[in-house]
Design a protein that fits this description.
The protein is an alpha+beta fold and 404 residues long. The chain has helices at residues 55-63, 86-101, 123-134, 141-147, 200-210, 248-270, 289-301, 303-310, 316-325, 359-366, 393-400; strands at 2-3, 14-19, 32-47, 68-78, 108-115, 156-164, 167-176, 189-194, 218-219, 229-234, 278-286, 336-341, 344-350, 353-354, 370-376, 382-389. The longest helix has 23 residues, at 248-270.
Length: 404
C-alpha cells in the first residue's frame, strides 16, 4: 500500500474540475466542483444526524436509493439549508449536470456548504455546471478540492495504490471542513472514489464501519453541521474479482479506506478554524472499545483542554475531568496522563493523582504545533484515538462575523 498523487481522480475513470461560478462574492475563489466517473459507479453514503438537514442531502439520499451514481456536484458559499426552494434548486442542478454529462439525473450527487438560511439562485449553476463539464480533467482534483473550501486554509486530498486479487486498485478523495465539526455519522464534506470492483452493499458496509474509528472521532468545536456528508463511489475499472462478501479482499479494502479517512481526519482537525495546534488523544488500556472511544473523544472535545493546549499549559486536571464525565466505565484511581510532541514526553499524572514534573519541560513540549495526549486507563486491552485542535481567539473572530 503506497501513497500516490491524484487525489479524487487517482482511480481509473475519474475526472474532476472546479470553477468560480458566482456563488461566492470573491472572484478569486472557486465555488463549484464536479467529479465524474466515465462508468456508472456503485455508491454509498452517510449523512448528518442533525434534524435540520440541507436540501442537497435530502435530494442525494433519494438519488442514491438504488446504490448507483456517476457524478458529484458540490458548491461552497451557500449551504442551501432552510430555503423554501432548496430541494428545487438541488434537483434542477442535478438536471443541468445530467444534461451536460449525458447521464441520468438520478445518478448525480448534490452537496453544498456555506452559510445557512441564505437565498440561493439557480443562475450560477446554469452557468457553472456546463463549464465544469467541459473542463473535466484527470488533473482536476486540486481544483475540485479548492472549490469546496469555505473557511479552510488548505486543500485536503489524498490517494493510495494497493493490490486486490493481483490487480492494482486505487482509492482517493477530497474533503473540506474547518468549523462546525463534531460529526455524529460521518463527516463535514468528504468525497471518495475508487476503481475497486466492490458491490454497493459491501461499499456501504465499509464506510459505515469505518466512520466509527475515523470521522466520528474528530471534533473541532462540538457543533454537528446540517450538511455533513460522506460519499464513496466505486466504478470497478480496476477489474479485480468483485468483492461481494467479507474476506481477505474486503479486509484489504477496509485497511486502505481507513488509511485514507484517518489521513483526512488529521488534515481536517489540523485546519480547525483559528487553530494553532493539532491535537491527538490516545486512550489506552480501556475495558472496552466503547470506553476508549468515549474517553478519547471527551478529551478532544473539552473546551478547557483545548484552551489549555492553546496556552501550552500542562493542566492535566482538565484531562481527568473530561474522562470523568465522558461516560466511559473506568477506574479513576488508575488513570495516567502523558503529554508528547517532537520536543519529548512528560508524565503528569499516575494512578489518578499528580506527580512531580518540570513545568518548564512541559511548556517546551506543549509549545509545539502537533501535540499528543496519552491517557492510560489501566483497565483492559482496548484503545482509541481522537483528533482535534486547540481553541483560540481567532476561532471567535472567524465565527463572530461568519455570515456578514
Amino acid at each position: 500500500m503506497k501513497r500516490i498523487e491524484g487525489g479524487i481522480t487517482a482511480a481509473k475513470g475519474f475526472t474532476a474540475s472546479g470553477v468560480h461560478a458566482g456563488i461566492r462574492k470573491s472572484r478569486k475563489k472557486r465555488d463549484l466542483a464536479l467529479v465524474f466517473s466515465e462508468k456508472r459507479a456503485n455508491a454509498a453514503a452517510l449523512y448528518t444526524t442533525n434534524l435540520v438537514k440541507g436540501a442537497p442531502l435530502v435530494v442525494t439520499k433519494r438519488h442514491l436509493a438504488d446504490g448507483f451514481a456517476q457524478a458529484i456536484v458540490v458548491n461552497s458559499g451557500n449551504a442551501n439549508t432552510c430555503n423554501a426552494n432548496g430541494e428545487e434548486i438541488a434537483e434542477k442542478t442535478a438536471e443541468i449536470a445530467a444534461n451536460a454529462l449525458g447521464i441520468a439525473k438520478e445518478d448525480v450527487v448534490i452537496a453544498s456548504t456555506g452559510v445557512i438560511g441564505q437565498p440561493l439562485s439557480i443562475e450560477p449553476f446554469e452557468k457553472g455546471v456546463p463549464l465544469l463539464a467541459s473542463s473535466l480533467s484527470k488533473d482536476g482534483s486540486p481544483l475540485a478540492a479548492e472549490a469546496i473550501m469555505t473557511t479552510d486554509t488548505v486543500k485536503k486530498e489524498i490517494a493510495l495504490s494497493f493490490s486486490i486479487g493481483g490487480k492494482e486498485v486505487r482509492l482517493g478523495g477530497i474533503a473540506k471542513g474547518s468549523g462546525m465539526i463534531h460529526p455524529n455519522m460521518a463527516t463535514m464534506l468528504v468525497f471518495l472514489t475508487t476503481d475497486c470492483n466492490i458491490s454497493s452493499e459491501m461499499l456501504q458496509k465499509a464506510i459505515s464501519t469505518d466512520v466509527s474509528s475515523s470521522f466520528n472521532m474528530v471534533s473541532v468545536d462540538g457543533d454537528t453541521s446540517t450538511n455533513d456528508m460522506v460519499v464513496l463511489l466505486a466504478n470497478g475499472l480496476a477489474d479485480n474479482p468483485e468483492i461481494t462478501a467479507e474476506g481477505e479482499d474486503f479486509e484489504t479494502f477496509m485497511r486502505a479506506l481507513n488509511t485514507v479517512t484517518v489521513s483526512l481526519c488529521k488534515a481536517l482537525a489540523a485546519d480547525g478554524e483559528g487553530a494553532t495546534k493539532f491535537l491527538e488523544c490516545k486512550a489506552i488500556g480501556a475495558p472496552s472499545k466503547e470506553a476508549a472511544k468515549k474517553a478519547a473523544k471527551a478529551v478532544i472535545c473539552s473546551s478547557l483542554v483545548k484552551a489549555a493546549m492553546f496556552g501550552s499549559d500542562a493542566n492535566w486536571g482538565r484531562v481527568l475531568c473530561a474522562v470523568g464525565y465522558s461516560g466511559a466505565e473506568v477506574d479513576v484511581s488508575k488513570i495516567g496522563v502523558r503529554f508528547l510532541s517532537d520536543k519529548g514526553s512528560i508524565s503528569v499524572c499516575e494512578k489518578g493523582a499528580g506527580v512531580p514534573f518540570s513545568e518548564e519541560k512541559a511548556k517546551e513540549i506543549l509549545l509545539e504545533k502537533d501535540i499528543t495526549i496519552e491517557v492510560f486507563l489501566g483497565g483492559g486491552d482496548y484503545s482509541a484515538t481522537a483528533w482535534g485542535s486547540d481553541l483560540t481567539y481567532d476561532y471567535v473572530k472567524i465565527n463572530g462575523d461568519y455570515r456578514t
